[in-house]
Amino acid sequence: MKKILVFLFVLGVLAACKKDNNDDPKPDQPAEPAAKVAGTYKLSSFHFINGANEVELEKLPVVESGKTVASGTVKLTKKSDGKVVMNLNLVIEGEGTIPVLEDLEVEVRESGKVFGLYADGERIGDADGDFIIFNVSGTSETGDELLLSFNANK
């Protein structure tokens, strides 16, 4: 959650310093949140923990000897006003495409300059149409630690 707050702070500072070269400003068009964040994003980092199983890819894609050995995508598809469906896939050499999240329905709510992403009423990430920060953690029914976090760029 601290990463989200840092991202929001940095985004706010950058937006405040942005120079406006438009001599004829037009009022902002109201944007439907789901349409603003919909699209395909490339993972730039990925972290997954399920008990003793852990996958941490601090920087994606992973390239070895000029060949991509690990990459991933997040696809947000507009379902309705205010809702998208999220699909997250990792592509690992020798393993193929691994679906991590399939058809997760996410509510998109405007939250200042970014959009909050919610599942079952809980905030699971933020998006601004060009960048996604996602972070969910908890405990399984057997008491194992669960974590899924990633960053992705359009």
TrEMBL record:
Domain of life from the UniProt record: Bacteria
What's the protein here called? Lipocalin-like domain-containing protein
Species whose genome carries this gene: Larkinella punicea
